[in-house]
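Late entry, evening session. Most of the bench is empty. Finally got around to the prediction I had been postponing all week. Sequence below, unchanged from the version circulated by S.P.
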Amino acid sequence: MSDNNKASVVIRAGIWYTMSSFMTKGMAFITTPIFTRLLTSDEFGDYSNFVAWAGIIVIVATMDMHTTVNRARYDYENLDGYLSSVALSGTAVTTLMWGIVQLFPGFFCRMFSMDMRYINLLFITTMVSPALTLFQAKNRINYKYKTYVAISFGSVLLSTLISLALVLLMQDRLAGRLLGHYGTVFVIDLIVYIYIIYKGRQFRWDECKYALLICIPMIPHLLSKYLLNQADRIMIKQFCGSTDTAFYSLAYTCAMIPIMLGNATNIAWSPWSSEQIHEGNFKGIRKASYYYIAMFYLIVIGMFLLGPEIILVLGGKKYMEAVVVLPPVVMGAAFQFLYNLYVALEQFAKKTVGMAFGTAAAAVINVALNWVLIPRYGYVAAAYTTLFGYACLLVIHYYLARRTGYIEAYNEKFIFGSLGALFVTMFFALWAYDHSPFIRYALALILCITLCVYAYKYKDTIRRLLKR
């Protein structure tokens, strides 16, 4: 393959991977208004609690060993055999954990705040869950983006449609939602699992040890990051019940709009900024970052101003109480967006040891504050404790990035000063929800016009960037 043809394949793969991420995550967002109306608030809260625990179990049991495939292809000639070994080791760890749960069912039912039948479903699906991620990792390194996209989007679409059908047909709608989604994903994972085992036909301890040595040190970072995102919902369920969990979960679903946007744009920003750092063009990064950050802030401010309307569309009138937590949760998305800028500097400098400690510290602070404040002030407190956790994460990574020698890539006065202005806007929006909807609509209209004028003024620049 010539260099030009290879570059073309890589570019097409990158575009389709990004689109696939949008489509799969967007499906969950689009269907939220449907399921919030079909399920009671208690059922929606219980489903959110299940999803939160499922993510934790997957991290602990499978340790994200699919991330080692990109490196293992250089160290093992028989990559199919390596996938087989890793898939079987994930099943073994999950089975061991499930056995421990069976010994103390009462304790774990209280801990997970769910019936034993749902805990069993959680572990059964996790036993084969590494299969699809391993298979997709292999497709990524071979640039088989068509297969990757077809499987990723196809599984999400199928599980969503079956979930919808079972929710409508079953008397127990929570069971229908869980079986429809996780049952469908289990069948797909099982098929891929059997294929991987058949193709590899081996289990080697040295390959498992290879994967574990890479992944185990990353567990604190992965688990801490996940806890920072999900611990609030788990603890709200424990202290306040399913209904409050549903209110908070819906607000967090709304915050996925800027989070998805930030993650998607970071795919393009991170490699470009790394290239500029390599060339010593810090001034160029700093200048571009003003526009990059400002555009993201405009999306956040728009969500501040139209919070009640967004909640009404996604959840209906019964969820309008959740509007008070939308601004701080969306503000947390802004902190996530900003700390990723500094994380990229740490990764470029290969100084990633502090990342796990920084993320773990922020997660511990968040959990501790939740433990103290949620029983006293309810689920609203979780929005502000999570916001504070992300603020700590930003500050921690800012100081870690200072050690890299690349900190001049960003103007810290602009970043932290603009965050102060964004805080003022957040509290103004909370005040305007009850006192002045007219001002909100007027400001939202001005914001929309500003975006249109900006897009028209720089249409040639935007066109060139998209063409690149």
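Two things to note before I forget:
The chain has a mean pLDDT of 83.
The CA atoms of residues 126 and 145 lie 25 Å apart.
Will write this up properly tomorrow.
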